[in-house]
Amino acid sequence: MRFFSIILIVFCSGVMNGQDISKLVSISFENVDKKTVLSRLENQTDVTFYYLEEWLGEELITKEYQNVTLKTILDDLFSDTVLNYYFLKEKEVVLTSNIVIYDNLPDRFFGEEKDSLVVNKPKQKIAPVFYTKKKSLNEAKISTIKIGKASVYSKEKYELSGYARNFTTGKPIQNLAILVEGKDLVATTDKNGYYLLELPAGENILSTTSLGIADSKKRVILYNNGTLDFDLTESLEVLDEVLLESNRDENIKDVVTGKEQVDVEASKNIPLVLGERDVLKVATALPGITTAGEGAAGLNVRGGKADQNLTLLDDALIYNPQHFFGLFSALNPFTIGKVDIYKGAIPAEYGGRLSSVFDIKTKDARTDKLGVEASIGPVTGNVTVETPVVKDKSGLLFGARGAYANWILRSLDEETLNNSQASFYDAILKYNHEINENNKINATGYYSRDDFSITSDSIYVYSNRAFSLRWDHTFNDKHKGNVLLTNSQYKFDINFDGDSNNDFNLGYSVEETEVKLQMKYELNPMYKFHYGIANKIYQVRPGSIKPDGDGSIVTPFSIPKEKALESAAFISGRFDFTPKFSVNAGLRYSLYNALGEGTQREYEENRPRNEGTVTNTIQYENNKVIETYDGVELRLSSRYIIKPDLSIKAGYSNTYQYIHTLSNNTTVSPIDTWKLSDLNIAPQKAQQYSFGVFKNLNESTYEISLEGFYKKLDNIVDFKVGSQILLNENIETEVLQGEGKAYGVEFLLRKNKGKFNGWFSYTYSRSFVKLDSEFAEERVNNGEFFPANYDKPHDISLVSNYKFTKRFSLSANFVYQTGRPVTFPVGQFILNGSEFVVFSDRNKFRIPDFYRLDLGFNIEGNHKNKKLAHSFWTISIYNVLGRNNPFSVFFVADDGEIRALQSSVFSIPVPSITYNLKF
């Protein structure tokens, strides 16, 4: 074995590098190692090679060369290795492992250029890499790693990328900080454990640090672009205090405009009605999100209707996520892991709604050991159980909640409700299974049901059902995706049992099934893409009525089923053009087909739709296309970071909605029905523009944001005065479609740290509707814009929590809102002996403003690690001020006079106490 262990630097103008390299050689190799290759080259060329055998490796070579120079052969043999070579003399070649032997000095080696020393000046700057193997005793213990292949022609900087994983579990380590000592350079691994650094050529000392991971340090000699992976071990330390900061500066860095997140764990400290934890109620304390009033189901986001929100539970749609007239959420708070709200530029993978997306994800069940969380309060009892199925592989989560709320109705100051009753329950079951590191399956089933009677003769029942099955697959480090199957159903029933012989059962349901393919591709850390396709089938049973009992005289009647197919394809990408400027752009194409079997009417053009203007009735066979609508939707967000704690964002989106609620009530009702777009009812459309400024103060202790928006809507659905909605088979004669517009400014000040924390939000928002027509019966308020039912210009929320100690805290929740619009009677007249009332323009007046203060005192059990269970008490008072906030205003005739009356939900302070247990 020959070896050459001394690095030579030759200064000789008379000896040329590769003096005899022009001689042509013909030779072939078949499955031989590099040592054999060099030996045969020595025999054929009389050249002697000097090297260490350990450098050559065990790779077998199969090559053939015809009439090429020795230099060509060596370049090809060593192209994918770290070996270099140097012609020392005419017949002697020195091999080096990642070392370049120079026979001239680089420019300005002595401080100024020495032309006399330059033999052949290269086209690029020569930058030899020099490093000291041992600087100190401590640094001598640092392992040295050489990356890339040394070259005569080098650059000043190269890219180093790689992957960090837990050596014990094999799972990626995210948020690992990789620091370059003395050079003010740092990188952080992403959620998949990958990082990218741009480093100066030569020696760099890299250190890694992360909570729960042992620190490490490596010396990297960088010759070229390359990779370096980290296999790290966990560190166990006894700490006095650990402070976890989640998504720090996320409000500054996030590119998507109008995005909010609800801290599920922190929501337990916010005092709400009867001590119930409710993430949707917490969302209404954020800017731009409100309700039509206390006890009103549905949310209004940035001036939109309640039916314009897409509420997803593990990707399955929940049509009515409310219990008990909207006082409680139908979503079990103990099972929720994450809540993302999109109210601006909605990402392209979501479609079918105009205003917002509430993307709610449940927790993955524990796979290590049993976990139980339970609570009992004045209204509900709740229990959630997590248990492993296959240890460290799969788990099952089950949550159930039931109510005993009848005493609430009896306590309300309303005689007609004395005999009322109400109950509700919901249940969720989730199974998560990690097949291997590349495949994971999640399945979720959900059901909720409400039974209530607000009179002595009618029982209302409504329910939600949802199911989702998701398979996540990782193809490689850059490409991953999932296949999703969901089914959702909402239905209600009215059972009437009166004193007369007109007892009946009335039922309604809407159901949808969706299959969706989503893919994600990361071209590099700066360019990421998301694309996919989706198909959804709607089935609506608009209603049926049948007699209840043998003596009922009610005639059975059923409206034909509606059916439609909605398909979509989408693509979006995040583009980090510079570290400061990023864009998230997406396109979504949606195609909607209303399908038979069914009957559709045609009406005379330029005439109002009524029984007298029908020109034709068309019968469509099963699955025959009745009408087709389609459209391209653009979703665009951009962010520019002015300073690390200051950014500006702008966004634009246009959306389509093919399904609508039918309601002529002021607020959302559990018996509102859904109607598909068809030959006579067009889909709703919206365009939204937004711009915001986001600022953090005092190391992200405070967040401040100011965001404005403008929204334009078309084909929004409203109804004629006195319209009949329920069981109307020609609903298009009662429907009006018009324009809408909404605009506003949202302000948020949030304190994230310290004993006192919480947020203050203020929203100024307006929402208007315009129903214009050349026909008086289809025109409202003379065809001018008028305030929508949910137009509430001023909305203020203050949520605060003060921690006296780690166990005791005081919370407060204050809400103020402008009263919503109403229509008042303004006069009366007598015609043919009958008295009639004259009403004002629609929504010309407003009910009194709404405000409410809630207080809560939170007591946590001791924080000992070795205890069977951890407890949490909440003592709260809802509506401390006893404000008699009006829910609605109505009018009655009394002795020839019209009197205005108001109804309220809670007009007195409501105390409650809730006990939570977790182990």
From TrEMBL:
Asked whether the UniProt record includes Transferase among its keywords, one would answer no
Instruction: Identify the keywords attached in UniProt to this record, alphabetized.
Output: Cell outer membrane, Membrane, Receptor, TonB box, Transmembrane, Transmembrane beta strand, Transport
Tell me which InterPro entries the record gives. Answer: Beta-barrel_TonB, Beta-barrel_TonB_sf, CarboxyPept-like_regulatory, Plug_dom, Plug_dom_sf, TonB-dep_rcpt-like
Pfam families for this protein: CarbopepD_reg_2, Plug, TonB_dep_Rec_b-barrel
- Annotated TonB-dependent receptor-like beta-barrel domain ranges read 419-879
Q: Which PROSITE patterns match?
A: TONB_DEPENDENT_REC_3
Q: How does it sit in the membrane?
A: Multi-pass membrane protein
Q: What is this protein called?
A: TonB-dependent receptor
Residue ranges of domain TonB-dependent receptor plug in the record? 275-353
Source organism of the structure? Aquimarina aggregata
What Gene Ontology terms describe where this protein resides (cellular component)?
A: cell outer membrane
Subcellular location per the Swiss-Prot or TrEMBL entry? Cell outer membrane
Task: Identify the domain of life.
Answer: Bacteria
Q: What family is it from?
A: Belongs to the TonB-dependent receptor family.
